[in-house]
């Protein structure tokens, strides 16, 4: 069952629904497959670190760092969906992100949730 049955979705990941909730109205969990995650660590390049340092003195959005974090979160989510798909899931429930600094080397982003198989009620 693809996500199009849920009323939306496009692109290469449209076959796996990802939600932050513990259930999906109109569907029941047939099988809980288990935890899935996508992990990535990104370092900041010297130019963005210098720019961020200067910007933090005068205030405002750190656009370079924002762009990097968005790309990092997207990559972690793509890896989560790949893992869920490989395990036979058609949905991930209770989806969350965890972000930490990785030993002064960069930012670690982990996307995680519970892979399940949903059936229409």
Automatic annotation (TrEMBL):
Pfam families xref list: YbjQ_1
InterPro entries given in the database record: UPF0145_dom_sf (IPR035439), UPF0145_YbjQ-like (IPR002765)
Top-level taxon of the source organism: Bacteria
Entries under Gene3D superfamilies matching the protein: Hypothetical protein apc22750. Chain B (3.30.110.70)
Matching HAMAP family: UPF0145
Similarity-based family: Belongs to the UPF0145 family.
Protein name per UniProt: UPF0145 protein ABT404_12140
Organism of provenance: Streptomyces hyaluromycini
């Amino acid at each position: 069952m693809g996500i199009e049955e849920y009323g939306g979705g496009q692109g290469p990941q449209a076959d796996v629904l990802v939600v932050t909730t513990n259930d999906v109205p109109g569907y029941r969990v047939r099988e809980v497959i288990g935890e899935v995650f996508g992990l990535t660590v990104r370092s900041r390049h010297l130019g963005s670190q210098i720019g961020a340092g200067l910007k933090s003195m005068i205030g405002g959005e750190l656009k370079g760092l924002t762009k990097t974090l968005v790309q990092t979160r997207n990559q972690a989510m793509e890896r989560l969906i790949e893992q869920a798909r490989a395990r036979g899931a058609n949905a991930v429930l209770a989806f969350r992100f965890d972000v930490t600094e990785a030993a002064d080397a960069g930012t670690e982003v982990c996307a995680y949730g519970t892979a399940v198989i949903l059936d229409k009620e």
